[in-house]
Amino acid sequence: MSKQKNQLRMTSGQRLMMMGIAMGAFLSHFTAGIVNVSLPLFAEIFDSRLEIVQWITTGYLLAIAILLPSLSSCH
After folding, report:
1. How far apart are alpha carbons 4 and 27 in whole angstroms?
2. I need a surface site. Which of 1, 11, 49, 52 has the fewest CB within 10 A?
3. Is the per-residue pLDDT at 32 higher than 90?
4. What pLDDT digit, counting tens, does each position of 38-68 carry?
């Protein structure tokens, strides 16, 4: 029984990895939310329609999607 309990425990490295994954997921949603909330302000500053300014969010999320796999492979 104790051997099975030991197999279920996470090492400190595994905990650190899980915290990094959780923090990355939270921060990606958080920053996307910040960009979405600021869209009306961007439309006002750039004197543009909201439909045009929404491309900022698309470009931001596209850049994150492109960079994330390449940055995750860095050791």
Report:
1. 35
2. 1
3. no
4. 999 999 999 999 999 999 888 988 988 888 8
